[in-house]
Amino acid sequence: MTQDGSLRITVLAEEGDAAYDRVGLTSYTESWDRALLALPGNDYAGDQRVRLLLNTRVTQIDRATKSVVTAAGQRHRYDTLVLATGSYAFVPPVPGHDLPACHVYRTFDDLDVSAPAPSAPWTAVTPMAGWLSVAACWAWKPPMRCASSGCRHTSSR
């Protein structure tokens, strides 16, 4: 809080994008336009009370000095600390989970990295058969086959 009693908020976000609609992430592959999924007001433009720092990973909490330290070594003091850690894509420790073509599906960057070359044939497989898993495969467009063990999507675009 400032001396005049007004509240100041600093948001440290590891991602390079301000808040967006993660549920609608499958529609991102239709346009590759991140702005279409941006939540209204997510950049806090013009709000002098909020400072949004993107691409800023917090690596340490120093409770003694009431500050957080970023991967770049910057220190940010706080009066009150809120840990809004978001989600984490669990990857089962199965053989091959760390290969270059194995991707998670949680952020814009995840989809950008996993996008196949337009001219190359490819196959996408998801080990789950839930709605979001089917939507993840479907985001890359037909043809797609689903089985009880998951989805397998082959394309020759």
TrEMBL record:
The protein's annotated pathway: Nitrogen metabolism; nitrate reduction (assimilation)
Requisite cofactors: siroheme
Pfam families: Pyr_redox_2 (PF07992)
FAD/NAD(P)-binding domain location: 6-112
Record keyword Metal-binding present: yes
Keywords associated with the record: Heme, Iron, Iron-sulfur, Metal-binding, Oxidoreductase
SUPFAM superfamilies per record: FAD/NAD(P)-binding domain (SSF51905)
Signal peptide positions on this chain: none
GO molecular function terms noted in the UniProt entry: iron-sulfur cluster binding; metal ion binding; oxidoreductase activity
PANTHER family, A to Z: NITRITE REDUCTASE (NADH) LARGE SUBUNIT (PTHR43809)
The protein's name in its UniProt record: Nitrite reductase (NAD(P)H) large subunit
